[in-house]
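Q: Sequence in, structure out?
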Amino acid sequence: MPALTLNVIGAGHVGAVLARLFAAAGAFQVQDVLTRSLPSARAALPFIKAGAAVAGHAQLRRADVTMLAVGDDQIAPACAALAAGGALAGTVLFHCSGALASGELRAAQLAGAAVASVHPIRSFADPALVAANFAGTYCGVEGDAAALALLEPALLAIGARPVPIDAAAKTVYHAAAVFASNYLVTVLDAALRAYQAAGVPEAVARELARPLVDETVANVFRLGPEQALSGPIARGDFATVERQRRAVRQWDPDSGALYQALVAPTAALARRKRGA
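A: Exactly. Output:
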């Protein structure tokens, strides 16, 4: 049987990578690609290696599956435009947002589509690299059973690992990625600047911090956060913590506030460690 057809709305890094992988694996036949402009849609085709660029929603052919890989603020308007087109009944529509649940696609449900969200848990800064090394990527999925029954085999075909998540907790789920990636960078930036404040050149500070960071992260995933925790709070040395807090606040008020904000959750983690 021929592969199910897939229309792609939004061909930024995430949309282009998924479309390319679906097409290459034969999971879906990429049909139409719609972006902010016809030139940008045409520019995406060499990377996707499939599909035809279209200028607007009116030019989209009916597809078995439609992927919305647009910004979060564009999901509801794009869904409404598709629903108004009257060609969604009996199809599947999914979006790729990590922060929003499939409930954002309510207009499509009312038009007869089964809806879902699929969020690949990767950094897509280098699309070609992600596409070449996508196998094993976890994807948070939730939505209608009919949509997931169709999407999960396609995800498995491109090497993804679908993980069901609670739609009601989608915002907290996405915050987990912010903690694990974005805020980790912020904390490491504070560490590197603190080393530099102590007279360590930036390049040396990075190399000085690298083994500490690598070993700590490895221990978190090997042993769990409780056993990976070390340092003054883990030892109960709050006199040292208070001296550091004052010194960091004097050096840089924003970093001092960050240090203070992390004391209570780290102390709670230390209590879990002692109780383990």
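The beta strands are 4-9, 28-34, 52-54, 65-68, 92-95, 114-120, 138-143, 161-164.
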